[in-house]
Design goal:
The structure holds 4 protein chains of 4 kinds. Chain A is mostly helical. Chain A has helices spanning 4-24, 28-53, 59-89. Chain A is elongated and about 50 Å long. Among the domains of chain D are: 144-153 and 201-406 and 434-637, no CATH class; 721-753. In chain D, helix 11 (258-275) runs antiparallel to helix 14 and helix 17 (354-374) packs antiparallel against helix 18 (378-413). Classes of the chains: A mainly alpha, B mainly alpha, C mainly alpha, D mainly alpha.
Chain lengths: 102, 419, 181, 753
């Protein structure tokens, strides 16, 4: 049997990697991809908790589906924004999008 | 283990049980059996390509008043496909300069892989199925949506603008037609109250085609588009973008794409048969037992093979008959016609069927009444749709004619004002 | 046995491909790796008896989101010089931060969880549950989503969210008239 | 009618107009006839269902009602709280008790009348409009006709939702939808502009008025939301019938204390202060007159301001308990109400805008109701709410008709510069617009409280009676205070109403606009006539039984018994629990308030007629009050300078604060100062280090100094505008926090070391 903590650790690793991508990547699309990784990590947690702690209820699954929905919406809007920014500023490097500085 | 014992087990599908009894209960046994099953289904699917590739060439030739393959392997060119495969395998594989090699090679593999994966949930005969998932149809849809990725990879990896354009087009087409396909196959799912493919077949003493012919037609059209068949063959429209996403592929790599395409077509035909034409069922043939031998299994398999062949013939017929759509017409047709129609259809079917089942018109002799009512509602919707289309076409034609007349008039009077 | 294998393969795919996603210079390959990572997550779902969610993962993440991302990459491909550094100036600090976060999560899972969870919560083993219950999960999920005693409001809100996101995305990405000319 | 049918009907009451909103927005394609037909259909459906439900309750036995006040109760599970299938739900539902029933009688009817009127008001001309977003000339059609009806339907639907809501959250949802609708309707003519001559009365354009109304009510709503949160935490539910039962209140009083319940009542009351335009948040309402007149009628009669009063009437048991626990609460509510009533009445005396007078009279009358609640006159407040809604709707619609007539005059004379709303240019409209005149007279007399006949007299009289009873029987000084102040306000009310009537209708036309005015179309006059009936007859249902002569004849104070049934039982139980001093009381007949109300009403009308009506103003003659009032007159005319005061007290300081304190002082001074200080310190250190290095060390210190300088420069660019860096920092801080919490909670340091 696989202990629950293994799933949690895999999810934590995936989450931390995604976090690193969000912090350190220059390209906005890459940041978005890292965010998707983080969302996936969260979903692993939800499903793992569902299966281990409350398999007779649907709460975990339901929330996993909601996360999926939100991820889809987020990707659509995020990518639209990136394309729009690219059109206006000719750049998708997050560091260069710093009109708010100082 | 001997062959004499094995053969009858093959017929009544207890061969795996037999093998288990021979090999024991070691953990590796299940893994080996799984691999055997996977290999069997995949090999079967791949072998079908040989048969159907040849058939299509023959049929198309006949329809175009030609003879078709007639040299290799005798009068009918039976070995033409074998020769083709040998040719493709021996051809040089040319990789374009600047290709993204990972994407370039991942594409055909992914393409073939997704096509083969689809066969896992296809019920060939009673009890003869790779795996009976309770979300079988959903699985099919998920896998076929993954196959879109293969086209993108091919288009990007080839480093060729025609390939990339072709990939863009293909993705637009496939993603668009996924929607009506999902929406229309919801109708049999709702009627059967099951997403499993076996559940679909089991729920069809009367084929669902007679319940919802409109949904069947939509599904058929969408599956034509999903497999990139004529008249939706924009994926490879030779006259416009050379060969679409597989322009840069040669040799066996191209062969993989072709195999994947044929397997996809076969599967779509088989799924159509499963969802609307009661799959392997035909007047109880699938349950025949002769001398304790499960003859029904073989008969059921033959039944679904026959039905699939008919649908596949329909595919070929359409390919030989209809001209190609333009990309904007294609997308408009999908989004502005098929999608709304199938949404309306789903609403009607859901409400109607809920009412019918609540009233108790389900099962046994009542099933005919249920079918009749669904059929009438479907035909009504179809008639209304055609009526609406006819009127709109009429006004559009009148507008166009008025415009043309105005243009003509302008042309006649124009010289007077000229200069 | 099969479950462990699925889990291990899934984890390796998810984590390995995830690593490629965050480190790769070539964005397109990053997107491919992302897809593989999603596939690995789907495998993890399978090992958790959530077949429906695995299929949904394929359909939505690979079939929709990944394709969307690849499209975006292709549309902004002029910016995709693989020569330039994929990381910004704070990558070391970022590394430290994410390692810290992982350390916190890890210690929470390994050290703190056993302190909080009473012994009644089974951590090592899955709750034994009949196959029929798992088979019914999809049915229950369906009725929970549309039932009055379930998630019908959040479900409808999610659909409105998707609709709004779709409209918003179209409007945001729509070329302005002056851009076209 | 069985219970289930009633439940279904109640759910459907707000559904019609809400649905119509979407239908008009999505499907009518600016088809004018279709739009108003749809809007009518929606509100008629609400009217039929609302009256069906209301009359079902009217027919019930009051004693039976008193035992089970909530006749209709139906709730849906809304959002699961806690684990799925744990059975904890946030519920949303509808409920109907007698109070709801009288509102259901009033709201849909008044709204329907306004809808009928709106068709005539907007649909006069047939030609295309010259511009969107400004009032169309009489010969043009309103270009945003469909939009108007869509918003109005949403408004009506939200009000009905608020009325039938069985919990505070659903009520708040309706409340906020109305806030949005009032914003978009007040600013309906968004492109309108005014040229104010220097020295004239400040006059803001509709779009600013809309923002002002929205922002002012928002201030109150934030506080109200705090109240809702407090309510939930104290009662554990937002449901009225659960929370405001004797049991629920007792429980909450034990939980948080009686004094805290008073605070909660005040927090919720703040919502009323904003919505019902009480001092000090009354400033938005007069400017809300910038909307089309039907909107003014809706906002000030049927819907928006009534909602605020409805809220405090609805939560009356809570307020009563709060007052008992802390009499200051009662003083605050009664004081604000009474002060508002008097202040607004004085302002109304000096207004020249025909709608401006009505706006201030609305504020004043709302003050009456709030003051009534403050002294515990529950039924009187509810009664005045209903009668006021009828006669104020009538007055607004009549004034709209007058303006309309004046605009016809403007169209005829091509004079588009004279303000058609200014009463100084009117006069002599009695013969030109007879129906409007009589409607205005009936409404005006109801507002003045003309004895015996009109509805306003009976409801106002009841407030006086309650106030006097508080003083005479319970020796409550608040009662006397309210009594005196309201009597003054009532006198002024009668006075300015008579002034308005005289200026508008009597004498000879003082301007060519008035000369060419004529009666409005039937779409506008029919609602006036219908509302006139109610402005008179609504009062007859609340005649006290002991009233001389009339009381024994009618012998059935229907309204009193009916509405009292809502909380009679609860208040009785609360009395036995000693949470309130006394339950709902049946007042004995008292001569003092009756005489007072007769005197102020007749006196006000008399004085008004003596000054304005006896010898109507001639053209160009100044207002006769200007001379005797002296400096007071501009003070009143400029609305006590509240707007200017707020400009000085609130707006300028905020601007100053953000400009000077935040930007100049904190940003530039402290933050930059620290950075500069650090820089200078290290620079100095570096300087001396360099000096030292010259003598002692060499390059090593140079390097150190460079590093210091570099760090300092980095520090200055701490605000990078880069989202990634911000997230990184916040993540690090969050991590530190989590570690800290975990460490404290689980004594991690002990485990680790």
């Amino acid at each position: 049997m696989i202990p629950l903590s293994w799933y949690l650790i895999v999810a934590a690793l995936l989450f931390s990697m995604g976090l690193y991508g969000v912090f350190a990547r220059r390209n906005a699309v890459a940041i978005l991809m890292s965010v998707e990784l983080m969302l996936n990590a969260v979903n692993i947690n939800l499903v793992a908790f569902w299966r281990y702690l409350a398999p007779d209820q649907v709460t975990g699954m339901a929330w996993a589906i909601f996360v999926l929905t939100v991820a889809a919406a987020e990707a659509a809007v995020g990518l639209a924004l990136i394309i729009s920014v690219y059109r206006n500023r000719d750049s998708v490097v997050a560091e260069e999008l710093d009109l708010l500085k100082n | 283990m001997n062959i004499a014992e094995l053969f009858p087990k093959l017929l009544d599908l207890t061969v795996f049980d037999y093998l288990r009894s021979v090999w024991g209960n070691a953990p590796w046994v299940e893994v080996v059996l799984d691999i055997i099953a996977i290999l069997t289904v995949s090999t079967f699917a791949l072998l079908l390509v040989f048969l159907l590739g040849w058939t299509e060439r023959k049929v198309l030739a006949r329809m175009q008043d030609r003879i078709g393959p007639n040299r290799v392997g005798g009068r009918f060119g039976q070995l033409q496909m074998v020769a083709d495969v040998v040719k493709m395998m021996t051809k040089e594989m040319i990789i374009p300069a600047g290709a993204d090699r990972i994407a370039y090679f991942a594409a055909p593999i992914l393409s073939l892989m997704t096509s083969l994966l689809l066969f896992a949930v296809l019920p060939f005969a009673p009890g003869l199925i790779g795996v009976d998932l309770n979300v079988g149809v959903f699985y099919v849809l998920s896998i076929s949506s993954v196959s879109v990725v293969a086209l993108l990879l091919a288009g990007w990896g080839s480093n060729n603008k025609y390939a990339l354009l072709g990939a863009f087009r293909s993705v637009a087409q496939l993603v668009s037609y996924e929607v009506p396909m999902i929406l229309s196959i919801l109708v049999p799912i709702l009627l059967a109250r099951s997403m499993s493919t076996v559940g679909l077949v089991e729920a069809q003493p009367i084929p669902f085609f007679f319940y919802a012919p409109l949904s069947a037609v939509i599904f058929f059209v969408a599956s034509l588009a999903e497999t990139g068949r004529s008249p939706f063959d924009l994926l490879e429209a030779e006259s416009e973008i050379i060969a679409g996403f597989h322009t840069e592929y040669t040799g066996m790599v191209f062969g993989l794409f072709m195999a994947a395409e044929y397997i996809g077509i076969i599967f779509m035909s088989a799924l159509f048969v499963t969802a609307y034409w009661s799959g392997y069922r035909l007047f109880g043939l699938e349950n025949v037992v002769l001398n304790g031998l499960q003859l029904g299994r073989i008969l059921g398999f033959l039944v679904i093979a026959g039905k699939t062949a008919v649908v596949f013939f329909l595919f070929m017929w359409i390919r030989a008959t209809l001209p190609r759509f333009r990309i904007d017409q294609l997308l408009n047709f999908g989004w502005k016609f098929l999608v709304p129609l199938s949404i309306v259809l789903i609403f009607v079917v859901v409400i109607l069927d809920k009412v019918l089942v609540e009233v108790g018109l389900v099962g046994g002799s009542n099933e005919v009444v249920r079918m009749g009512i669904h059929l009438v509602s479907n035909l009504l919707i179809g008639w209304a749709t055609i009526e609406i289309l006819r009127r709109r076409a009429k006004t559009a034609r009148q507008d166009y004619e008025a415009e043309a007349a105005a243009r003509d008039a302008a042309r006649v009077t124009a010289p007077a004002h000229a200069d | 046995m099969a479950e462990q294998i699925t889990f291990i393969i899934g984890s390796i795919l998810a984590l390995g491909a995830g690593f490629i996603v965050v480190t790769n210079r070539n964005l397109f390959h990053g997107a491919l790796a992302l897809m593989i990572s999603f596939l690995g997550v789907a495998a993890i779902y399978l090992s958790l008896d959530a077949g429906f969610l695995a299929a949904a993962q394929l359909l939505i993440y690979i079939g929709a989101i990944s394709i969307l991302i690849i499209f975006a990459i292709m549309l902004t491909r002029r910016m995709m010089q693989t020569t330039e550094d994929p990381f910004n100036s704070q990558f070391l600090l970022a590394l430290a931060a994410s390692v810290t976060v992982f350390a916190i999560l890890f210690s929470a899972i390994v050290y703190v969880w056993p302190l909080t969870a009473s012994n009644s919560v089974p951590l090592a083993a899955k709750t034994a549950v009949a196959d029929a219950v798992l088979q019914d999960t999809v049915v229950n999920l369906g009725s929970a989503f549309v039932g009055a005693d379930g998630y019908v409001i959040p479900f409808e809100l999610a659909s409105i969210l998707l609709l709004a996101a779709m409209v918003g995305a179209i409007i945001v990405a729509w070329p302005k008239p002056e851009d076209v000319a | 009618m069985n219970e289930e049918t009633l439940q279904t009907l109640t759910w459907l009451i707000p559904a019609g107009p809400l649905l119509v909103f979407f239908l008009i927005v999505l499907f009518t394609k600016h088809n004018r006839t279709l739009s108003w037909l749809l809007a009518w259909a929606g509100v008629i459906a609400s009217l039929i269902m609302g009256w069906t439900v209301a009359f079902n309750l009217f027919a019930e036995d009051p004693h039976h009602l008193a035992e089970h006040p909530t006749v209709v109760q139906s709730a849906l599970n809304w959002i699961p709280i806690g684990a799925f299938s744990s059975g904890n739900w946030l519920k949303m539902g509808v409920a109907v008790d007698p109070l709801t029933a009288v509102m259901l009688f009033m709201v849909p009817f008044a709204v329907f009348m306004i809808f009928i009127y709106s068709v005539g008001y907007h649909n006069y001309g047939q030609g295309p409009a010259h511009k969107r977003g400004v009032p169309p000339h009489p010969s043009e059609e309103e270009p945003m006709f469909s939009r108007f009806f869509a918003y109005m339907s949403l408004f009506a639907g939200a009000m009905l939702l608020l009325v039938v809501a069985d919990n505070l959250l659903l009520l708040f949802i309706g409340w906020e939808i109305m806030g949005f609708c009032s914003y978009s309707l007040i600013g309906f003519w968004y492109a309108r502009n005014y040229h104010i001559e220097p020295g004239g009365i400040p006059h803001i354009p509709p779009r600013q008025a809309a923002v002002k109304a929205f922002m002012t009510t928002r201030v109150a709503d934030v506080v109200m939301m705090l109240g809702i949160v407090f309510f939930y935490s104290a009662f554990g539910t937002l449901n009225f019938s659960e929370a405001l039962s004797a049991h629920g209140l007792e429980h909450a009083a034990e939980m948080v204390g009686v004094g805290a319940l008073g605070i909660m009542a005040l927090l919720l009351f703040t919502g009323t202060v904003g919505k019902s335009a009480q001092w000090p948040l009354h400033v938005w309402l007069p400017d809300a007159m910038e909307g089309p007149t039907p909107v003014s009628a809706t906002i000030h009669a049927a819907a928006m301001v009534s909602a605020g009063i409805y809220l405090i009437v609805r939560i009356f048991p809570l307020i009563a308990v709060g007052i008992e626990g802390n009499p200051g609460v009662g003083w605050v509510i009664a004081g604000i109400g009474a002060f508002t009533a008097l202040m607004a009445a004085t302002i109304a005396v000096a207004q020249n805008d025909v709608k401006g007078v009505l706006a201030y009279s609305t504020i004043s009358q709302l003050g009456f109701m709030v003051a009534a609640i403050g002294i515990g006159a529950y039924i009187a407040a509810a009664f005045h709410l209903i009668t006021h809604a009828f006669f104020k709707a009538l007055l607004f619609l009549s004034s709209g008709s007058v303006i309309h007539g004046m605009e016809h005059g403007a169209e005829h004379t091509h004079d588009h510069h004279t303000d058609p709303q200014d009463m100084r240019f009117m006069g002599g409209l009695k013969d030109k617009m007879p129906i409007t005149f009589w409607a205005f007279v009936i409404g005006g007399m109801a507002l003045s409280g003309l004895p015996i006949v009109t509805a306003g007299f009976w409801s106002k009289d009841e407030i006086f009676a309650d106030a006097w009873y508080q003083w005479a029987h319970h020796q409550n000084p608040a009662g006397l205070f309210v009594f005196i102040v309201l009597a003054l306000a009532a006198f002024l009310t009668a006075f300015y109403t008579t002034r308005q009537l005289s200026l508008t209708f009597l004498g000879k036309p003082r301007h060519q606009l008035a000369e060419h005015a004529h009666e409005s179309s039937r779409f506008m006059t029919v609602p006036l006539m219908a509302l006139s009936v109610f402005a008179i007859a609504a009062g007859w249902f609340g005649i006290p039984e002991e009233f001389p002569v009339l009381g024994p004849i009618v012998n059935n104070n229907f309204f009193h018994h009916f509405v009292a049934a809502t909380i009679e039982e609860t208040m009785h139980e609360l009395e036995t629990l000693h949470l309130v001093g006394h339950g709902l009381e049946v007042l004995p007949f008292q001569w003092v308030p009756l005489i007072a109300s007769l005197v102020v009403a007749l006196g006000g009308i008399g004085v008004g007629y003596w000054i304005y009506g006896r010898k109507p103003l001639a053209e160009g003659q100044p207002d006769p009050l200007i001379k005797p009032l002296g400096a007071l007159y501009p003070f009143l005319q400029n609305k006590w300078y509240w707007d200017e005061l707020y400009q000085i007290v609130f707006i300028r300081p905020v601007v100053y604060f953000s400009e000077v304190i935040v930007y100049e002082f904190m940003d530039k001074g402290i933050i930059d100062g620290i950075i500069h200080l650090v820089a200078r310190t290290f620079f100095t250190i570096g300087y001396y280090a360099r000096r030292a290095e010259m003598m002692i060390f060499g390059d090593g210190v140079d390097w150190v100094k460079d590093q210091f300088l570099k760090t300092v420069r980095e520090l200055r660019y701490f605000q990078t505008g880069r989202i990634q860096e911000y997230t990184l920092v916040s993540m690090l801080l969050a991590s530190a926090l989590i570690v800290l919490i975990l460490a404290i909670n689980y004594d991690l340091f002990a485990t680790l070391f």
